[in-house]
Amino acid sequence: MIKRSLLLSLLLAASAVQAQDKAAAQPDLAKAKQTAEQICGACHGADGNSQIPANPKLAGQHADYLYKQLRNFKSEGGAPAERANPVMGGMAAPLSDADMKGLAAHFASQTLKPESAKNKASIELGQKLWRAGDVKRGIPACAACHGPAGAGLPAQYPRLSGQFADYTEAQLKAFRAGERANDPSKMMRTIAIKMTDPEIKAVADYAAGLR
């Protein structure tokens, strides 16, 4: 009888610990919403729909990708941040790991208000690069990683559909110049360095119009 009671107590204790662990693992969306409204909203919009082309739209972006970017902006242990940006470095500095996961989950859950392609003259070039790349020059199709509709792949490749063309263009140029270097295995730097300014502009504009 004593053994049964002891076993039951142990099982109940284990269940309680598991419940606590599960609760701790869940992002605090209420806190994240407040942070987004009070801090992030000035540049990105409280709902992640930035109105400033230089600042990316975060609404509907993959949570794992957003979390990675926040971590990369943050300098830890005296080491330089993986993604250098004075503004975002300062914003990320006080955030805990739980804060970053919460913000990522908050923005991922918002509905994107997409941009659109605006340059008709470059649509054909942008479409060609997106769908087929340029095999002779070693430029793979953007769709191979970011998907035919630009939806990306959680934890690996960001959603580019509906993003500001100006922002996407700026990031491609930053990869090309080596100013942004937080791409795994130098994947984006290897591709962007082979692209011309007109090609970068065309594919960025094309991505903005994808749905």
Automatic annotation (TrEMBL):
Name its cellular compartments.
Answer: Periplasm
| Protein keywords | Electron transport, Heme, Iron, Metal-binding, Periplasm, Signal, Transport
- Explain the post-translational modification: Binds 2 heme c groups covalently per subunit.
* Residues that bind heme c 2: C142, C145, H146, M188
User: Metal-binding among the record's keywords?
Assistant: yes
Q: Which GO terms describe its cellular component?
A: periplasmic space
Q: Which residues form the signal peptide?
A: 1-19
User: InterPro entries in the record, alphabetically?
Assistant: Cyt_c-like_dom (IPR009056), Cyt_c-like_dom_sf (IPR036909), Cytochrome_c4-like (IPR024167), Cytochrome_c_Oxidase_Subunit (IPR050597)
Instruction: List residues binding heme c 1.
Output: C40, C43, H44, M88
Per the database record, which ranges form the Cytochrome c domain?
27-111, 121-211
Q: Extract the GO molecular function terms from the UniProt entry.
A: electron transfer activity; heme binding; iron ion binding
Principal cellular location given in the protein's record:
periplasm
What is the protein's name according to its record? Cytochrome c4
